Known about the structure:
seven-stranded antiparallel sheet
Amino acid sequence: MRELxxxxxxxxxERHLGTLSTISSWGGIHAVPVGxxxxxxxxxxxxxxxxxxVRNVLRDETATVSAVEGARWISFQGTASVHDDPAEVAxxxxxxAGRYRQPRENPQRVTIHLVPTRLMGSAGxxx
Length: 127
């Protein structure tokens, strides 16, 4: 798999929203805007356990997270899973707060992990 350059790592520290694409129950693409972080080789998305994206991941682990800003873009394709361990959720919230802002309290919060198997991006973000 390709790796991030310094510019790619910086792009992922900047505040950019992304799009999470999962497979819907009827077989189509379910694409929604998300805040996400990339840390220790895992894309993390915090969300509510009752969300459609969680239901989709529990049914089919195929997922992609993409972000674009002007001519710069990055896309992580891989396998997703849902995590509700309080320590993992707290870690994901802290990462999210560092990139975006402190999220509102949500007792139903879980974390979606996407382990990339393919990384694509614009020139200069990957090697």
